[in-house]
Amino acid sequence: VCMSIETPTPTLGLDSLDTLMLDSPKFDQDTGLLNASTFEQVLANSFEHASGSGEPLTLVRISFDRAENDIPRRPLELRKLVSGVTAILRKHFIDSGGVIGRLDTESFAVLVPSHSRVVVTRTADAFRNEFEQACLEWEVPGRTHVGIAYLDHTTQGIYQRVEQLSTAAARAMKASASNGGNCIKVFTPKKAA
Questions:
Q1: Cα 131-90-152 angle, rounded to 5 deg
Q2: 150: three-class secondary structure by DSSP
Q3: Residue 6 pLDDT
Q4: Contacts of 12 (CB under 8 A, 6+ apart)
Q5: Residues facing residue 104 across a β-bridge
Q6: Please, what are the averages of pLDDT over each run of 10 residues along the chain (193 residues)?
Q7: Whole-Å CA distances, 119 to 16, 93, 115
C-alpha cells in the first residue's frame, strides 16, 4: 500500500506524537492498547464521521471471566490472560483496520471500519476460538463474551448518539455471557413499524 503526503492517514482524534509514545497517558500501561477514555474519544469521533459520511462502523465488545468459578484470579493468572487477549486481538483485528482499547480489567473493545458483517463476525469468532484454545493450553479457566453492534445502511437512523451504539454492543456482550459465554451475539435493533 502506497501512502502519499497529500492524503494523510486519519488519526481518529489522536495526536500523532501521542500515538508514537506508549508511555502516553492515552494508552493502557499493561497492554499498550488505547485506554478506556481514549478509546471512547476515538469511538465518538469515528461515530460522528461514519454518521456523516454513511461509511460503516462496527463495535465489538469483549470480556472474559473464570467460567462458573467465583474465586478471584491470582495476579499472574490475570496478567497471562490480559496479555493473551491483547496478542490474540491484535492478531485478528489489526489487519482489518481495527482500533483496540482496554476498557477495564477484563473488558476490551474493537472498533472496525468494515463493509462486511460476515468478515467482522468471522474475525470475532476466530478470536473467540483461539482464546478458548489458549485457555486450555495455559491451564487457566476462562471464557469470553463477545457482543457486536453495527452502524451501516441497515441500521441507518437507529443510532442517533454514540452511546446508543456502545450500549447495543454491551447488551450483545451481556447476552453472550447470559447464554453461557464462549459465543458471539450480534445486536439487531428493532425497526419502527
A1: 95
A2: strand
A3: 32
A4: 42, 45, 46, 99
A5: 107
A6: 34 49 77 94 94 92 76 79 93 90 94 87 94 89 91 87 96 92 88 55
A7: 29, 11, 9
User: Hey, which residues does 37 pair with through a beta bridge?
Assistant: none
The radius of gyration of the chain from alpha carbons, rounded to an integer in Å, stands at: 17
Q: Phi then psi for 113, rounded to 5 degrees?
A: -85, 90
Write out 86-148 in H/E/C secondary structure: HHHHHHHHHHHCCEEEEEECCEEEEEECCCCHHHHHHHHHHHHHHHHHHHHHHCCCCEEEEEE
Which amino acid, residue 130?
A: E
So what's the pLDDT on residue 3?
33
Using the 8-state DSSP alphabet, how is residue 74 labeled? P
Q: Of 113, 123, 119, 120, which is closest to residue 56 (Cα–Cα)?
A: 113
